[in-house]
Amino acid sequence: MARPRTPLLSRERIVAAALRLIDEEGLDALSTRRLATELSVSGPSLYNHFATKDELLDAVVDSVIGEVDLSMFATAEGEAGADGTRWPEALRDWARSYRAALAAHPNIVPVLAQGPGRRPNALRLADAVFGHLVEAGWPRGQATRIGALMRYFVTGSALASFAAGFPADAEVYDAADYPHLGEAHRLAGHRGSVDEGAFETGLEALLDGLALRFARLPARS
Amino acid sequence: MARPRTPLLSRERIVAAALRLIDEEGLDALSTRRLATELSVSGPSLYNHFATKDELLDAVVDSVIGEVDLSMFATAEGEAGADGTRWPEALRDWARSYRAALAAHPNIVPVLAQGPGRRPNALRLADAVFGHLVEAGWPRGQATRIGALMRYFVTGSALASFAAGFPADAEVYDAADYPHLGEAHRLAGHRGSVDEGAFETGLEALLDGLALRFARLPARS
DNA sequence: ACCTGAACACCGTTCAAGT
DNA sequence: ACCTGAACACCGTTCAAGT
Lengths: 221, 221
Hints:
Two copies of one chain form a homodimer. Helix content of chain A is 53%, strand content 0%. By secondary structure, the first copy, chain A, is mainly alpha-helical. Chain A has two domains: 11-51, Arc Repressor Mutant, subunit A (Orthogonal Bundle); 71-215, Tetracycline Repressor, domain 2, CATH 1.10.357.10. Chain A is flat and about 70 Å long. Chains A and B meet through helix 6, helix 7 and helix 8 of A and helix 6, helix 7 and helix 8 of B. Chain B binds a DNA duplex through residues 1-5, 7-9, 31-34, 41-45, 47-49, 52-53.
């Protein structure tokens, strides 16, 4: 065949197929050969569009981060920020959107959690959060730490289901070894509500704790 | 050589070598052949001690979790628990030990974050936390969620450095694209204090937020 | 510019063979 | 029981060759 008149592949098509493979069969199932087969081309064809598999993974990661809503940070001047009362609401809305985007693709979270690197969408996200917190009145050092701790919590909650981590087999939980886990085999059956409840409880607790600290901040000039 | 009079390998030696390889070169650098070479045996020898590479990884993970201190949950009857005032201190001490154990081996955290599975040390940890919270007066459903959200936060904070995720190259942060990230290239240089500060801020905020909820709990009989 | 097959140095795992 | 080499079906990546 050699070069076709209209290209068989594009970066977009490759990224979409890679994400689907990762979602359905895990990060280990993504091989360049397997992905190429999925796209009905031969293995080396991908190297016309991405220099390495890592570069492809980077594109997949940034496409996921691009789904996170950042509109709550773009408030009109004067409406928020100046008095600082709106930052907890913005942080709450953002955290929910951030978690939803990541939890839709848990198998890619370990890659994404390595930080923004040079990925545009990840840098835009960091810029929006930090900028909003500083404008709301948080000192820059504290704003950095809040950005970090929110990422810790969100990536941790999207990385894996807590409930599904406990085998549904009651035999596992020998009362002599684990006296308090007698009901743990039921967790996996309530996966959605346990994970969602834990995320919401943690998010509200974090925001309450941060609000206490914000109130203790020395008055700004 | 065939079978030597005294075995060349043991599960312990294999696990230790695997963890060192993962720490020094990453999860992808752990191959059965590479590990065997490191241990001066041939590749298939490992299969006399572990059925699969996954079983070996499980053992590595559980050895890391075994380093987490759980002694704060084993308080004497009456000294704590009954009045419930000691749970925030126990949770704080445990979270710090948990994070320290994981952050010493960040490359294995994605595996470990999948949940306890059938690993004894991971199940013991879950049992100790849940048991302590219930005895302190938390309803069982809430205790489950607190165990989950603490794991979210700790694994998220140990998975990767926040500060090191930002390239130290100032060229990355074009002011037109990222107006608030002008100083982000300095983050990696303060990696320790940023990550530690974010973890401590988040931990205290979480504990404060949870204490507010504990105070609102209906009185127990 | 964009695809192909052949090739290189790797993988995890099985298995028959040795002591 | 515990190690070995040979073998199988895989990897990521390079490269010369085709249009």
